[in-house]
Amino acid sequence: MAKIVKLAPIDRIEGHLDIETVVSDATKLTTDAKCQAVMFRGIEEIMKKRDPRDAPIITQRPCGVCPTSHGVASSKNIGDAFGFRCDNDFVNGPDPIDVPNNGRLLRNLALGCNYVMSHLVHFYHLVALDYVNVNSTGLIPKGFACPNYDDRFYARGIDPTGSLGAPAYTVNNIGGAAGTVPSPVVGDLTAYFASQYVRALKFRRMAHQIHALFAGKMPHVSNFTPGAMTNKPYDSSPTGADPAVVQKFREILYAGPGYALSDRTHPLNGQPITVSNPHPESILGFIGKPTDFWNWVNGVSVTGTPLGGPLGGPFDPAALPLWAQVGDGSGTAGTNWQPYIGTHLFDVVAAAHVFPEYFWIGTGVNRHLAWGAFEGAVGDAPWIGTGHADNRLCTRFRTHVNPTTGAVIGWYPVDHLDSVEMVDSSWYDDTAGKKRHMWQGKTKWNPDKAGAYSYAKSPRYYNASSGTGHPVGHLPYEVGPLSRMMANAKYVVDDGGLGNPVVLNAVVSGDRTGYYPGILSDVDQTLVPTNPWIGGSGVGIFPSAGQAPTDFTAGPYGSILYGNYLNALASPAVYKSNYTGDGVLDRIAARALETYYVAKHLWYWFNQLDPNETSNVTRRYNWGEGKGWKEFVPKYSKGVGLTEAPRGALGHWIKIGNRKKKKLKGKISKYQIITPTAWLVSPKVDAGLGDAHGPMEESLVGTPLQIFDEPIELLRIVHSFDPCLACTVHVMTPKKEKVAEAIVEPAG
Amino acid sequence: MNLRITRRQFLQYCTASAAALGLSQTDLLKLEEVLATPNTGCSSPTPSVIWLSGQACTACQISMLNRVAMVTGGYYDGDMIDALYSTASPLPPPYPQAPVGTGTPADPVGLELDVVKDVADLVVGDAVSAVVPQLQPSPGSPRAGWAPFPNGYITLEWISTTMAGAGELTVRHLQSIVEGGPFILLLDGSIPTASPSDPTLQTRNEKACFVLDNVDYPEWPAGTGAKVISALNAGPVTLANCLRWICDTNGANCLAAIATGTCSSYGGIPAAQGSPTGATSMEAFFAQEGITTPVVNVPGCPPHPDWMVYPVAYYLIHSALPELDQWGRPKAVFSGSSDGEPFCYDCPNKPTQGTPDAAQELGDSGCLGGLGCKGPYTFGDCPVRQKNTADDGTLMNWCVGAQGSGAPSGHVGSGIGESRHPCQGCIQPDFPDWSGLTTFDQKTNRKIKGFYNP
């Protein structure tokens, strides 16, 4: 016996998304899933006939949460069509028309600030309420929290007895089974989480404030151009004192309110405030440091003194503060050791402790794609490299072969020409099974098309290698922070190489080459899955590679509610297979780490700005008497702009002019956008290898649901992807023909 | 946002902070009196606020978060931490207590107390601050010119972007608000419906935006589930039908409709030339349907958060909407930088400071008119209020901002940042097309009636 369990609307996302699953009464598992994008605007049709220079203005409006990514992609896209080069052309060396260094730095700063804002709002204001019920605290505005699900789904307090084997937070037990802790328990931390929710509102707002320094305003940047951006970052000061913008940037990013670097020490550890030792009331202070939450995992105080036991012994909840405090270092169990909490990274670890089964729940297609982002200097690679990872085989390059001779003629990064879109399950008309690259996009809106169920199309990327264990052909790929790390061999990696804790520590110092290197080598890198999160004492909070899902109610994992439920299912093996590194918590953890690395790198880019250089390519070159930047607009051209939105790989494609239509000379004749969310929520299609769900649909299949009326498990999976639905846009046929409609009244 | 402070909480807080605030006993008594006076502008129960999204991008809501954070839970978020830590915290134990100070060993983090002024800005209002000098608005406060707001508060009851639950849970909640009333409706994003070029496409167009499923899940097989809301069709519900149910069927409960953002105010980018979905503004949709709920337009792409809060706060105090200009926008906010003049008067690049159209390329100094700036045709307070102001009140930047320049009006021409991009006029009904399909075409600009072509 089956049931349809559908969530419409899905809340705490951007935009309009419905999720429909089929659940088996017998096994309690979902057997099928549909992701439905249910809002459409036709932005690509609106782009037609416009001056290409307007593209960054209009194309940001698909999304108010990540507009900067669209602005950067569009700026690169029309820059490409105009003949400007930045990192697009690094393989061939510098080009005479280069985007100024200041321009690419400002684009990086703008994009990086957007990442920080987006990731913070995502975890606290879109994700956190899946795990913590803050309604009862009275601290959260009503509309931000209610209505909500059964209280027993949510984390509450701390287990003071240590009977769960860890200083973990408990989840209220649904059945009162033996060995469980009743609710409420000592030291209810719900209020702590509520206050973090509120604090995060401030820090994400602050990320927009520094973003506006470069962007004019946020949301929706004012000042992208084809040649990067319009503004100089700041005027050099004649007095030699730091200009106001430098001071404000420092203050908000790491120095804290009332910045005055020379006389500022950290209020808690007495050390000088630096970008590596940030003030708690700054963005970096709120995010925290990876080493600090490791110390918590391993029971080490902030002074570095081990405090006994693999997980530091039980908490003393009466001493739990919001701000970091220094432990007494005595190492005696039960004394007032206090970890560095009140930070974003701590909160993510806390979630992982309470809901560890979500490393196994919500695993996707196990293929990851990244276009790369954060432009390097001319001749240099982007800071986040391009690549794709299939079943943990990280392929930074693919071979290009001469189609005639079969000889290998070169190694190239991930190639956008290998991506296509299909509309077989989407509300657009086209030939069945048709695959179109974005420069050939041509579809017709039809909301009554039989068998279709989404306004999202199905982007698919061509996997060329059978060595991955995945078939050769066009396949669905996941994108996002986790995918960027996977594609750069940085999440689950060879233990002898790049992912062990020592290397992650090295990156804390801000070494730009340490974490997201550019091109590594010409060969495919085989990843041996290893847990990169294991601390010095050898016990981690994250599973080991290939670890089977077994008993979740004991050991370092203390989730009673779902653990009992999962244990009671017919067989543990019926839900997801052994750990693959792409579950719900992996996506959340990768996003949190990325928040830290990007925020830290903002300072690096900022320090490279030249106050005397323009940021706009058109001002950099003299085009002759009476000529100006209008001369840049070609009559016929095409371009591509690739970047990474906070949510994943983002591409813009443009065609300028159409030789069959003289009126479109120098105007946009075609503009297409493939957003990360299109990759993620893409509906099921057959790209030649049989029906294949998109990543989110795949992640929803095989999920055990406890209460069909309250499918919070589905929400947790959906939210881990950070979907942004308004970004979904579509190409239209240029003809304004009437659609011969069958007028279908809504059912009922 | 539940901006409510109960009287008891606020007085507790003031008492606890009395020394720091410099409040005398007399002041406290007066405060108590004021708070005891019912808010005459607001009948009980306080109206709920529903924020629906149509063909939207969510920028309006993100922009609102850039302000709301200052008053969540009835406290400025700095005050939230303050209150949690004060020795007389209104929160129950065993929440940890810590002393509050100003960067001393007692308060190593250095939380400042004057942040409370911003709490008063939106929660307590002028009536209280008249009594308590320390609560008076800072110079240049965005609250300048707003009506008194004694005990006003709103309860944001339904907003998909931040609500905890999903699906049917929220559909039932929406029903309870809409059919229970009273409420104020906010809408961001345009409404796809009949298009002027081809009205026969109305049914198709309305399918461009669904907002909820009117089904009691789980169901089996598909289409057999009972309805949640009897007055709506079963299955997927379009935005248009949802609005009909909210503002027509239940119009008596809908006190006002606020169009947040240019899309819902005037159609915006989804309704720009080439639009295939018949995207429509809220006012035009209401006219099409014969819905009489009064509409306030708060355009902007996105609007400044202060603009969006203003009409809601005004309504709660006066039980009436503020005076509107010719484009349906609150006059107090959008009447122009100074005495009804367009942006140019306050612009740091204003022509009289140099030659008009001095900038030849993007990034140049001087008037951007030659690059298509819509400043001459745009009326609002962007050059003065600017954007993304820092928490300490530092002006940061705005679209046309140019560092180091003052404006002839005497207002600060820019914050500490700069942008130097032509204004796109996103608060005017003509955004984005402006008759020319480009921002940058000066020839087209010269054809628009206005500053250069009166």
Can you describe this structure?
The complex is a heterodimer of chains A (748) and B (454). Chain A is of the alpha+beta class and 748 residues long. Chain A is built from 18 helices and 23 strands. In chain A, the strands form nine sheets. A four-stranded antiparallel beta sheet of chain A has the order 8-9-10-18. A three-stranded antiparallel beta sheet of chain A has the order 1-2-3. Chain A has a three-stranded antiparallel beta sheet with strand order 13-16-17. In chain A, a hairpin with a 2-residue loop joins strand 19 (637-645) and strand 20. Residues 1-24, 26-45, 68-153 and 449-454 of chain B have low confidence and may be disordered. Chain B has helices at residues 7-16, 18-21, 25-36, 59-68, 77-85, 116-124, 126-131, 168-180, 202-206, 239-249, 262-266, 282-289, 305-318, 331-334, 382-385, 442-447, and strands at residues 48-53, 155-159, 183-188, 191-192, 210-214, 235-238, 254-260, 279-280, 295-298. Chain B is elongated, with a radius of gyration of 24 Å. In chain B, helix 1 (7-16) packs antiparallel against helix 3 (25-36) and helix 4 packs across helix 13 (305-318). Chain B has 454 residues and is α/β, with parallel strands linked by helices. Chain B is built from 16 helices and nine strands. The chains are: A alpha+beta (748), B alpha/beta (454). Chains A and B meet through strand 1, helix 1, helix 4, helix 5 and helix 6 of A and strand 1, helix 4, helix 5, strand 2 and helix 8 of B.
Quick description:
The complex is a heterodimer of chains A (748) and B (454). Chain A is an alpha+beta fold and 748 residues long. The chains are: A alpha+beta (748), B alpha/beta (454).
Task: Give the topology, please.
The complex is a heterodimer of chains A (748) and B (454).
Chain A: E1 2-7, E2 17-24, E3 30-37, H1 43-47, H2 55-59, H3 67-82, H4 101-127, H5 142-145, E4 155-158, E5 169-171, H6 190-215, E6 224-225, E7 228-229, H7 244-255, H8 283-287, H9 290-297, H10 344-354, E8 367-370, E9 387-390, E10 393-395, E11 397-401, E12 408-413, E13 419-422, E14 428-429, E15 444-445, E16 458-463, E17 473-475, H11 481-487, H12 501-508, E18 525-526, H13 560-568, H14 584-607, H15 617-620, E19 637-645, E20 648-656, E21 668-674, H16 676-681, E22 685-686, E23 691-692, H17 695-700, H18 712-720
Chain B: H1 7-16, H2 18-21, H3 25-36, E1 48-53, H4 59-68, H5 77-85, H6 116-124, H7 126-131, E2 155-159, H8 168-180, E3 183-188, E4 191-192, H9 202-206, E5 210-214, E6 235-238, H10 239-249, E7 254-260, H11 262-266, E8 279-280, H12 282-289, E9 295-298, H13 305-318, H14 331-334, H15 382-385, H16 442-447
Parallel strand pairs in B: 1-2, 1-3, 3-7, 7-9
Antiparallel strand pairs in B: 4-8, 5-6
